[in-house]
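Example complex used in Figure S2.
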Amino acid sequence: MDLGLYGIYACLFLGLYFEVFLFISFFEKVPPVKNSTHPKRYPGVSIIVPCFNEEKTLAGTVESLLAMEYPKDKLEILIVDDGSKDNTRHIGEGLAKTHPQVQFFSKENGGKWTALNFGIPLSHGELVGCLDADSFVAQDALLEVVKKFEDSPKADAMVPAMKVLGPKNLLELMQSAEYTFGIFVKKTFDNLAAISVLPGPFSIYRRGVFDKIGLFKHAHNTEDMEMAFRMHANHLHIENAHTAVVYTKVPNTLRKLLKQRTRWSQGFLQNSSDYSHLYFNPKFGDFGVLVLPFGLALFLGALYSTGYLLYRVLSTLITKGLDVWASGVFVWPTMSLEHLSWFYLNTSMLTFLIIITVGMTFIAILIGRKIAGAHFGVGTLLSYFMLYGFIAPLWLARAAWGTLWSKETVWDSSHK
Amino acid sequence: MALQKYILVFIITAAIFATAFYVATRLDSRRLADIRATQESVSIDILSSETQFALLGNLDCKTISENPILSTELNSLASRLSVAEENLGATNAEVIRLKKQYSLLQIKDYILMQQVSQKCNLKPVFVLYFYSNQGNCSECGPAGDVLTYLRTQYPGLRVYSFDYNLDLSAVRTLISLRGLQGQLPALVINDRPPVYGFKTFEEIQTLIPELKTLSTTTAATSTKQR
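Predicted assembly (642 residues):
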């Protein structure tokens, strides 16, 4: 057996180990179904909407917040324009004029984290949240978050279940399945007290978090990830309100997707370096021992597997090409009815392990779909399984390259 | 964080790996059994033809020339042996044993077809192709491709391929009888002296002028290296 294949088996072992761990952890505490109860108390909530050139979606985002089932006097919305160059300011000011719950602020461009830090001291809510200006909340999202905070007095921050808004093309469908897989993963990480990111769309914090550990940081353009790392480092608790749904727009072109994911992946590597003391440290529970090391190992494993696959494909093509060049003839692979027999099926151990790994991912997506009440068809699943494995290594490689050469990622207009 | 859970997950993952290994091994065993069964069937067919030949001193020449069952079966066998070799590796003891049996069947078919040709006054073209897959024959790959291509152009051609390094006395005897000197790849066309080294399609066409007389409807054995 060629030596490189041992590396593939090692990657598969890690991948399977991680998946088995997730499944066991998920079933240890199956998430309850949504109920129609109301919170005993309605705490004041401030939602900060940082925006930069979001003229197309800002109004919709704010209107979804205004439409939430929550007492109007308990909810304030702070739009912070981070120096937009389009019509965002005009739209924001209009919303503030027509809705007393909405306040509009404008500042010089400095990045999403500066917009959040601008808004937090101006807010008054007991709970402070953030909503990217291209995301839209379900009507009961805040109620569900507040109920979850009520049930979990220890929780310092809450993340919602994220779904893709109106996926249309193949890339969006692929991300829709990926986000649904994320719903399963997030719920499992919740059971493990190891949620690794507080996403921009509708993560809600107790105000005390900022008093204890400070405001957002630049953090390699991944302030939401760094905040989660910092909370774990300070033994604060992040939980998941899987019944609180938020819809978000996702990149619809490969270029935009690569840009966004390179930033996320590079952010993970750079934040990992900044918080390396959390790695393999049992003081930080499963976050330090499982989630961080496996996140890094799977990152490297995916790069290795892609490299190995490329090497095998290229070496086969080159060998075949040299043979054709040397022999002067091209022999087409023969195919007959006999080749349809089971005998010719690839039934190697590697094939079975890949089928099991993909099968478990498939089941996880179905679970994610069930717990968050998501709806999608076969096309979405096919897009995910056909495309993700080919596209993800591109951003992983770019992120690894950027980290090695200390290149800073750049913001796109969506801030996400 | 519970250490027991980490250990339990390790055991489950290892069990999944072990199960995958077990199922793959079982299926490989079934493949080998399938090859053994096919070899047995070919062996019986050859033995039957030989016995018929011995009893009657002749065969139904028309049937033999129009119904090349043995060649088809040998082809199928060759293809299956290639799959088994890819899955289990060329050094697997069972694969080597089956390869030896396959080589014997080829030799028996070769002898029988020579006898049939004599009795039935046929003029087939036999090519014995000797190769090595131990990494010391860079020209064997292209040579095999040319022979495979040749067969697609001249299906009446009967090509028998042998691993030069196979530790089988019958193959060693064939090598000795044909006067091979160890240089590879080597071709023995009918009863002529061996030809060494890679030959292009055009060069082989020149080496075998009888190709022009060959029928284009009969199958022949594969030249894939096994």
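Residues 3-213 of chain B form a domain with the Glutaredoxin fold (CATH 3.40.30.10). The first helix of chain B runs from residue 3 to 56.
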